[in-house]
């Protein structure tokens, strides 16, 4: 398959999101598209896939002019796309999601689920994918949901795969497994488009790379004709700023104390877990997705009631309190899922930015919100965090995924609470924004705030954490100080129960 895009233009009202971009994708190759949040990467691929209209330009498939009227037409032509924010039905099973709209039907119109199960099991076995086909998607971690999206494309036998930030929420082991699948696709002669912020992955996987900035194509060519450093400069339009040297922390008293916390019952129970997060430190939690990290975060933030144990914030027992009460007690929360938990997408940027501040002086007058104050506050966050959006009055849902994430991070860090729970805080943001967010987290730590960092990025855990706790099978399998941490030791604890440090993790 050979796909050529020529002089593509996509506009949203007065905004030109893609400005005369030309790209080519060939069978048996991996083509990476990189750029800052809002650079137009996802938009140009959405245009190819028939999700958004092109105002100018042309597309040819194997030399023949095409223009998809909808994604269904693109799918029938052999294209498949996995979006950064998953397109799954949460109340349906893995099997039902994968075959949705492509169900094998019998003579009477009944779906042949047995036939679909056998076909899907064969596809999964061919690529070494292990997942419970009968599990409800609502019960899956983000990493497992990514696998379901990949399975949909495998089931459809697409000839061209477009993957938008496919490893954003995957652990190193899951990323390696995905890349093994992609390599087998490449060897089978399929074309792969990889939209990503991770330059190491670009250098490891891509045969060609295209860099976009502000809707324009600034570089496109073979991976051998450039370098990681040059790609980074092309992305930001200049040199990246060096981060200051990371100073050792000076931990104080415990801000978050967890004792013998148990979430769920039976074989799937998470815990018992005990840990402390102290003033002036970052405690990182590492682990392969699905080993209890999500359940732990939900229990700590009030999204789920624990079955046993104690949770204290600033010496206050909060185990029985809801999310709002815990935030009032001194907690800020950067959730893993910005779409469902972090933002109200139909709401304005100013409304989303002001969540949690409506009881503060200046933000409300009697029973009414002060719109001018909300707009000023949102404008300040937009400028400080370099959020690309039309302005405070724009709807949150109009932003790119990375800019949504920056808005959530900006809102939560600006609250200045004693405790910050950060769950994959740099998911889907560009390299410049990653450095900025990391710097802000370290500033908060140095100012005496306690930060609990849960991340699927092992490099992020190692770069920011003063202490590291590793989870496996719903329990703490190991814990170590920053000075004693290395990838091999952490990786060993991620794959098996090591020292049972559920009590030791609490030791200061």
Looking at this protein, list some descriptive labels:
disordered C terminus; Rossmann fold; 6-stranded mixed sheet; nucleotide-binding; ATP binding; repeat; globular; 26% strand; transport; 508 residues; alpha/beta
Question: Please, could you describe this protein's structure?
Answer:
- The chain has 508 residues and is α/β, with parallel strands linked by helices.
- It folds into three domains: 2-236, 3-Layer(aba) Sandwich (Rossmann fold), CATH 3.40.50.300; 241-330 and 417-508, P-loop containing nucleotide triphosphate hydrolases (Rossmann fold, 3-Layer(aba) Sandwich); 346-415, no CATH class.
- Helices cover 32% and strands 26% of the residues.
- β11 (254-263) and β12 form a beta hairpin.
- The model is unreliable at 499-508 (pLDDT under 50).
Poorly predicted residue ranges: 499-508
Strand content: 25-35%
CATH superfamily of the largest domain: P-loop containing nucleotide triphosphate hydrolases
Main sheet record: 6 strands, mixed
The separation of the N and C termini measures: 58 Å
Q: What's the CATH class of the largest domain, please?
A: Alpha Beta
Count the beta strands.
22
Q: Percent range for helical residues? A: 25-40%
Radius of gyration: 23 Å
- Please state the overall shape, judged from the principal axes of the Cα atoms: globular
Query: Which architecture of the largest domain would the CATH scheme give at its second level?
Result: 3-Layer(aba) Sandwich
- Strands of the largest sheet, in order across it? 6-7-8-3-9-10
Q: From the 3D structure, determine the CATH topology of the largest domain.
A: Rossmann fold
- Structural category is alpha/beta
- Residue-averaged pLDDT, rounded? 85
């Amino acid at each position: 398959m050979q796909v050529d895009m020529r002089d593509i233009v996509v506009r949203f009202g007065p905004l030109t999101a893609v400005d005369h971009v030309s790209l080519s994708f060939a069978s048996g190759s991996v083509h990476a598209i990189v750029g800052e949040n809002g650079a137009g990467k996802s938009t140009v691929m959405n245009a190819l896939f028939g999700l958004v209209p092109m105002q100018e330009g042309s597309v040819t498939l194997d030399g023949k002019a095409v223009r998809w009227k909808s994604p269904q037409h693109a799918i029938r032509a052999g294209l498949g796309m996995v979006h950064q924010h998953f397109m799954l039905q949460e109340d349906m099973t893995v099997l039902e999601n994968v075959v949705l709209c492509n169900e094998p039907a019998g003579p009477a119109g009944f779906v042949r689920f047995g036939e679909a199960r056998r076909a899907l099991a064969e596809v999964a076995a061919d690529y070494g994918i292990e997942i419970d086909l009968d599990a409800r998607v609502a019960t899956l971690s983000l990493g497992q949901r990514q696998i379901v999206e990949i399975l949909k494309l495998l089931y459809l036998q697409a000839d061209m795969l477009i993957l938008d930030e496919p490893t954003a929420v995957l652990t190193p082991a899951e990323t390696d497994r995905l890349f093994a699948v992609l390599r087998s696709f490449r060897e089978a002669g399929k074309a792969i488009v990889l939209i990503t912020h991770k330059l190491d992955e670009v250098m490891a996987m891509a045969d060609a790379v295209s860099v976009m900035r502000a809707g324009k194509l600034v570089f496109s060519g073979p991976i051998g004709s450039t370098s990681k450093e040059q790609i980074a400069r092309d992305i930001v339009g200049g040199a990246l700023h060096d981060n200051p040297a990371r100073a050792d922390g000076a931990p104080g008293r415990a801000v978050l104390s967890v004792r013998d916390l148990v979430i769920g019952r039976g074989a799937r129970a998470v815990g018992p877990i005990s840990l402390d997060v102290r003033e002036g430190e970052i405690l990182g939690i590492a682990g392969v997705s699905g080993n209890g990290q999500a359940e732990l975060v939900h229990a700590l933030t009030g999204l789920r009631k624990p079955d046993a144990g104690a949770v204290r914030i600033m010496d206050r027992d909060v185990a029985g309190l809801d999310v709002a009460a815990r935030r009032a007690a001194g907690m800020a929360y950067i959730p893993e899922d910005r779409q469902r938990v972090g933002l109200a997408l139909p709401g304005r940027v100013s409304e989303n930015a002001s969540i949690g501040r409506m009881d503060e002086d200046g933000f409300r007058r009697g029973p009414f919100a002060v719109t001018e104050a909300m707009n000023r506050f949102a404008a300040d966050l937009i400028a400080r965090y370099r959020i690309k959006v039309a302005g405070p009055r724009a709807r949150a849902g109009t932003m790119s995924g990375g800019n949504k994430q920056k808005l959530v991070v900006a809102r939560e860090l600006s609250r200045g609470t004693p405790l910050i729970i950060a769950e994959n805080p740099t998911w889907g943001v560009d390299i410049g924004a990653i450095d900025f967010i990391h710097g802000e987290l370290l500033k908060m730590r140095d100012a005496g705030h306690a930060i609990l960092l849960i991340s699927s990025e092992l490099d992020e855990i190692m770069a920011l954490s003063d202490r590291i706790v590793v989870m496996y099978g719903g329990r703490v399998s190991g814990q170590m100080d920053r000075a004693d941490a290395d990838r091999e030791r952490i990786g060993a604890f991620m794959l098996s129960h090591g020292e049972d440090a559920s009590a030791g993790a609490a030791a200061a």
